[in-house]
Amino acid sequence: MNRKDFRFAERLRVRWAEVDLQRIVFNGHYLMYFDTAVAGWWRAMALPYEPTMHELGGDFFVRKSTLEFEGSARYDDQLEVGMRCERIGNSSMLLQGAVFRSGQRLVTGELVYVYADSKTQRPLPVPQPLRDLFLGFEAGQPVLDVQVGTWDQLGRQAQAIRTAVFVEEQKIPAELEWDAADASAVHALAVNRLGRAVATGRLLEHEPSVSKIGRMAVHASLRGSGAGAAVLKALVAAARDRGDLQVLLHAQESAVGFYLRMGFQAVGPVFEEAGIAHQAMALDL
After folding, report:
1. In sequence order, which residues have a C-beta less than 8 Å from that of residue 269 and are 6 or more positions away?
2. Quick check: pTM over 0.85?
3. Is domain 144-284 in CATH 3.40.630.30, yes or no?
């Protein structure tokens, strides 16, 4: 198998603590690399693992892990750990993994998981929606549906994400989070293939021909997965479609890099808003 055989791969860098006296990666760490890649594989499918398993009523348990060694990774090597669903049985799933360095295959592995009742650990059939999602992802199907609409249409799901991110996680007072602008704003909602909303944002008219994006929120476990970018692109497209010439936003300082990569430019100095450092940014359409 080659790197191109994997739709998803986790990027890792070998740390000093992972090498042995021969200055190569100790063999047991490859299981950790594969486990890290499995978590990334779930993230790439826009699936927050814990709430997904809770809703489905089961969980995946490791049945067997096997490794085959063809080469050795060394300290500071940059690796790609490919992961894919190779086969799904009635209650089991086989994941195929491989570790690559500059395209060279170093280690391959097979991980067998059994889907079972989370309390009794008795095997259960893999739910059909989950089966379809895994196979669809490997076939190249999109993992998100981005919906654009009004607060009446999307507000219930958007509110849940914003409450979790802004009120519960960032401790922003609820009275600062909710305002009358939601009623007139254009909202975007990213929904995964199991119907769970994972990211949201809104678009307001700031002044003639100028829009303002705000309330960008992504499920904590899916940040960096592309869900936020999908919502942002949908809101920018909505602004462009209605003839706006510029889009503004106030980015939390920790997210400035994300918006720069999306084409926005910083405007003016950093300032504080709701007790959090922000940077004004703009994108010409």
Report:
1. none
2. yes
3. yes
